[in-house]
Recover the amino acids of this structure.
């Protein structure tokens, strides 16, 4: 799937607050991050089988709701297999995850090697210039909130 189709499928819903889940390759994910100029980007890697991932997900939704108008862009990436996309989408709808939701259509070895993810949940936080500010595996929401606030207040 090319970037144009990826972004179109994410943004072309009839309702602005619709929850979607789009299949993506690693390259699509990379382009989705780099295409958001002047945004602070939080990428959340998670799985339906990861209890801590599902437990902290409402906090990610709350951060999105609190800061999206100030320039925070959240991308959730489920690392579940494509055949689990239905249950992942159901979960995302229950959480009202109206941000960009992707399901990575790659073999685990691809994303594990490229992203160096060894455990989930795993969050990547990018500043407005597209540089990785933080990579977090244990999530302290108060600390994350402070970092996001600082990044949003920095001039691009």
């Amino acid at each position: 799937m090319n970037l144009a189709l990826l972004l179109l499928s994410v943004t072309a819903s009839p309702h602005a607050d619709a929850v979607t889940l789009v299949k993506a390759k690693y390259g699509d994910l990379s382009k989705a991050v780099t295409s958001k100029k002047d945004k602070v980007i939080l990428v959340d890697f998670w799985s339906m089988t990861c209890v801590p991932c599902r437990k902290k997900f409402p906090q990610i939704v709350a951060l999105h709701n609190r800061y999206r108008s100030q320039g925070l862009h959240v991308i959730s990436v489920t690392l579940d297999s494509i055949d689990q996309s239905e249950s992942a989408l159901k979960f995302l709808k229950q959480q009202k995850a109206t941000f960009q939701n992707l399901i990575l259509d790659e073999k685990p070895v691809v994303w594990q090697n490229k992203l160096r993810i060894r455990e989930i949940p795993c969050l990547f936080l990018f500043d407005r210039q597209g540089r990785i500010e933080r990579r977090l595996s244990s999530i302290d929401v108060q600390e994350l909130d402070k970092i996001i606030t600082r990044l949003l207040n920095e001039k691009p």
The beta strands are 22-24, 40-46, 72-78, 100-104, 122-126, 132-136. DSSP finds six helices and six strands in the chain.
